[in-house]
Automatic annotation (TrEMBL):
Bilayer-crossing regions: 27-59, 71-87, 93-121
Protein name per Swiss-Prot or TrEMBL: Biotin transport system permease protein
Keyword Transmembrane in annotation: yes
Protein's membrane topology: Multi-pass membrane protein
GO CC terms of this entry: plasma membrane
Main location: membrane
Amino acid sequence: MRGHGVLIPNYVPGDSIVHRTPLWLKFLLVAGCGLASFLVVDWLVSAAVLGVMCVLFLLSGAGLKRLARSVWLVTPILAVIGAFQWWQLGGPVAARIVLNVLVCVVAASVLTVTTPVQALLDGVVALSKPFKRFGADPERFALTIAIMLRSLPFIAGAFSDVRDSARARGLERNPRALVLPVFITTVAYARQTGDALAARGLGDAED
């Protein structure tokens, strides 16, 4: 599977002020943006918040091209959502919904481009520890996040490969030619991942 751009960009080494920001504060930023997406009702406010997130991303030194790639990958989905909401609820509401989604995407990107994966997972473990009293397993939760981060590029690459293959055969508009191979590849990948975890004793809950 060849490499492909993914929704959430990878870590970019640097010494910017965003890199040096404590991880808990960056987690709080992402959570705040997610909460704001439900509370903000004015698309102008959403646009202003998106502008701030874009500035933070650029301050990290990750570059405009990487930011544009992250936004571009969700553009087709947001175009459909925006058109439907425009038809149902009008332009201002559609703009607010689309902008709020972009805010969350860019905020998550700010976190991932300025935080090494291992530090991110360690932070997840630390944040999850208070929930151990309720039966939560912080290590397993972090492992789940790690598998997700590893799987997203694979699935995105699988879809891109299948799309290119279908286009070469003149089947790019055939849903079965696109969906079925990606589904089969994804299931096979999930089975391989499960077998690898089971071989290491990580697939089953401890007694």
